[in-house]
Amino acid sequence: MVERGFRFIKDQSFHVSEVYLKNDSRIAALSMLMVLCLLVYSVAEWQFRQVLKAQNAFVRNQKNRPTNNPTMKRVFFFFRRVRQIQEIIDGKPVCSLLNYGVESQAIVNLLGAPFNKYYN
Predict the structure, then answer these.
(1) Does 37 reside within a domain?
(2) Is 42 left (phi over 0), alpha (psi -120 to 50) or beta?
(3) Is position 13 within any domain?
(4) Which of 51, 73, 89, 94 has its C-alpha lying 20 to 30 A from 13's C-alpha?
């Protein structure tokens, strides 16, 4: 299970070759931080899968087929282009979202009120 979680280190998007640490305490700190992040990632993935199964909902997988067992990497993929912009209209600041599509909205709605407040 741990090996499956750390496979992202081999991914080209991780840029592990760009990290240079010489101090032993910093290496240990980075390792602990990575383990903590992996824990949060795994819990988020488990919780989202539980929500999907409880509500009998699905998201598209990489092959455009519905699945209720996605990875968090796939869920994050739907939010990769979402941007928040702040404009001043008639002297008042207005926040709006760009590239917030139907699939992203469906995922946020599945996650409930704590997430809806950030995307509405």
Answers:
(1) yes
(2) alpha
(3) yes
(4) 51
State the total domains in the chain. 1
The whole domain housing 20 covers 1-57
Q: Quick one: three-class SS letters along the chain?
A: CHHHHHHHHHCHHHCHHHCCCCCHHHHHHHHHHHHHHHHHHHHHHHHHHHHHHHCCCCEECCCCCEECCCCHHHHHHCCCCCEEEEEEECCEEEEEEECCCHHHHHHHHHHCHHHHHHHC
Contact yes or no for 59/107 (Cβ under 8 A)? yes
Alpha-carbon distance of 87 to 31, in angstroms, equals 40
Per-residue pLDDT tens over the stretch 7-24: 666 666 666 667 778 888
Does 1 score more than 90 pLDDT? no
> What span, in angstroms and rounded, lies between the C-alpha atoms of 95 and 102?
19
